[in-house]
Recover the amino acids of this structure.
């Protein structure tokens, strides 16, 4: 399998390399390897303090959060163990004891 990144325009996996350029045959988009490296670096998920987060980390909530569709509240200091990073607005997928599976925004947690 190729280790080249997918096209940033159309997400095609059929990109190829031509000297210093990466080219997408599907949409014709061209970009440099430096731009691809910057895009990959920008995907780093950080907590409220600025620490980088990784799959398997333990985080604690820094603000009371209402659970949508329920009367439950996730209190400050609640720990979420063994998190998983996902794409999207709510970029942390985790399980919280007493509440269950939920998604959190990284701006409301702190790495322990």
């Amino acid at each position: 399998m190729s280790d080249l990144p997918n096209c940033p325009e159309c997400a095609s996996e059929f990109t190829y390399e031509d000297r210093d350029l990466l080219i997408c045959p599907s949409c014709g988009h061209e970009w440099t390897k430096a731009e691809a490296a910057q895009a990959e670096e920008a995907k780093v998920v950080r907590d409220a303090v600025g620490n980088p987060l990784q799959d398997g980390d333990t985080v604690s909530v820094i603000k009371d959060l209402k659970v949508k569709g329920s009367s439950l509240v996730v209190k400050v200091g609640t720990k979420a163990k063994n998190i998983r990073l996902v794409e999207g607005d709510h970029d942390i997928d985790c399980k919280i004891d007493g509440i269950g599976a939920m998604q959190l925004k990284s701006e409301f947690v702190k790495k322990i």
Q: What stands out?
A: The first strand starts at residue 16 and ends at 18. The helical segments are 33-42.
